[in-house]
């Protein structure tokens, strides 16, 4: 592994630690996402890795060398800050050159590198402008060029797309991925947007309250979340409370029995989670396709919400409200509010957690 974070901790004064017992590593050329809710310690982690904030304890290793005590400029890491703060009085080219001048390169070398960094983010020809003469998205690209310009071994990006509108954000995220892969740059990408993390990261670290909840590929994080927090954070999901029965099934409210692919200890409380789009919906009395390993539940539709590409049904069943999502078709809504329906989903799609949150 090329970059290794080992038992990192940060305490600010007497508060609870902002980051604690955090360990993960990246292979060379890997893009790792740091994903988690606001305040979970993402920026603090990135700042410790870059050297802008001193770790309270723990180590950071690059290529086997301990860099924990080194100043930022000796770590050869390109950083793009959350508030990307370009220098307003400098031109775009001067902004990008800033890090190189600190490193004492020749004028000619600097000009060459600035030009190629601006080309990389598709901003050729705007070097003489001031930041205020650029759009928000262009300014964000300048900040990215500034992080790339000295060909760092490691790229650290803190919410690099936060100030862009939805369409530009998708384009830029693909561009970042393309540049990162072309230069084979080991990269940490901080975001609180799970779609963004899933779309471009090789692996994702999900953080919560300063700690690591799970590390895995986007597929692992989504399909086999380690905790209810991860399951909740990476997409919409239904929650049902139940109890394990002796035959390995789960009793919900005494009114329904469901099965999961991995049974738990008899009598123990269990939290069941199912993703809305993995639930099938048929009219009451219809046959369920491939019923053998399906959980089936009778319910009544209480609300139908049309959001363009998706129809959301809120279904009352087993004393709870269950959200079901279906792709829309031009034929219109098959079910109206008040309709009696059967919900069905597979045992594989039935995630179970002990009520204390462990899997
Ligand atoms: N200089 C500081 N002094 C005291 N507490 C701080 C300091 N910097 C950060 N914190 C605290 O550390 C915790 C983690 O903050 P951090 O900025 O790392 O979160 P984040 O995950 O980046 O959040 P966001 O998504 O909002 O950017 C927060 O509770 C924050 O209030
Ligand atoms: Mg932050």
UniProtKB/TrEMBL annotation:
Record GO biological process: quaternary ammonium group transport
Gene3D superfamilies in alphabetical order: 2.40.50.100, P-loop containing nucleotide triphosphate hydrolases (3.40.50.300)
Top enzyme category: translocase
E.C. number: 7.6.2.11
Gene Ontology MF term list: ABC-type polyamine transporter activity; ATP binding; ATP hydrolysis activity
Reaction catalysis annotation: ATP + H2O + polyamine-[polyamine-binding protein]Side 1 = ADP + phosphate + polyamineSide 2 + [polyamine-binding protein]Side 1
CC annotations in GO: ATP-binding cassette (ABC) transporter complex
Record domain ABC transporter: where: 3-234
Domain of life: Bacteria
Keywords linked to the UniProt accession: ATP-binding, Cell membrane, Membrane, Nucleotide-binding, Translocase, Transport
Similarity comment text for this entry: Belongs to the ABC transporter superfamily. Spermidine/putrescine importer (TC 3.A.1.11.1) family.
Entries under PANTHER family matching the protein: SPERMIDINE/PUTRESCINE IMPORT ATP-BINDING PROTEIN POTA, SPERMIDINE_PUTRESCINE IMPORT ATP-BINDING PROTEIN POTA
Reported function: Part of the ABC transporter complex PotABCD involved in spermidine/putrescine import. Responsible for energy coupling to the transport system.
Oligomer status and interactors: The complex is composed of two ATP-binding proteins (PotA), two transmembrane proteins (PotB and PotC) and a solute-binding protein (PotD).
The protein, known as: Spermidine/putrescine import ATP-binding protein PotA
Organism (species): Azorhizobium oxalatiphilum
Name of the encoding gene: potA
């Amino acid at each position: 592994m090329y970059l290794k974070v080992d038992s990192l901790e940060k305490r600010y004064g007497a508060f609870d630690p902002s980051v604690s017992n955090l360990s993960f590593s990246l292979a060379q050329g890997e893009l790792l996402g740091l994903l988690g809710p606001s305040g979970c310690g993402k920026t603090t982690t990135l700042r410790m890795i870059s050297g802008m904030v001193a770790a309270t304890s723990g180590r950071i290793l690059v290529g086997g060398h301990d860099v924990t005590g080194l100043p930022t400029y000796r770590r050869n890491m390109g950083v793009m800050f959350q508030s990307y703060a370009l220098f307003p009085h400098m031109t775009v080219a001067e902004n990008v050159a800033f890090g190189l001048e600190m490193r004492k390169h020749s004028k000619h070398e600097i000009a060459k590198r600035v030009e190629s960094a601006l080309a990389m983010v598709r901003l050729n020809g705007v070097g003489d402008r001031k930041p205020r003469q650029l759009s928000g998205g262009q300014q964000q690209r300048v900040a990215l060029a500034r992080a790339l310009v000295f060909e760092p071994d490691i790229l650290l990006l803190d919410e690099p797309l936060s100030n862009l509108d939805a369409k530009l954000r998708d384009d830029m995220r693909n561009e970042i991925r393309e540049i990162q892969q072309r230069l084979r740059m080991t990269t940490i990408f901080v975001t609180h947007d799970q779609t963004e993390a899933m779309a471009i990261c090789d692996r994702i670290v999900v953080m919560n309250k300063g700690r690591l909840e799970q590390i895995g590929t986007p597929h692992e994080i989504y399909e086999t979340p380690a905790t209810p927090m991860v399951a909740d954070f990476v997409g919409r999901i239904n929650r049902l409370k139940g109890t394990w029965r002796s035959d390995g099934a789960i009793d919900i409210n005494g009114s329904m029995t469901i099965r999961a692919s991995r049974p738990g200890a008899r009598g123990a409380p269990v939290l069941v989670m199912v993703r809305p789009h993995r639930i099938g919906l048929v009219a009451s009395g219809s046959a369920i396709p491939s019923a053998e390993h399906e959980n089936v539940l009778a319910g009544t539709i209480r609300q139908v919400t049309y959001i363009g590409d998706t129809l959301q049904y809120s279904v009352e069943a087993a004393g709870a409200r269950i959200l079901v999502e279906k792709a829309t078709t031009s034929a219109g809504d098959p079910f109206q509010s008040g309709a009696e329906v059967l919900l069905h989903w597979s045992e594989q799609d039935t995630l179970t957690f002990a009520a204390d949150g462990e899997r």
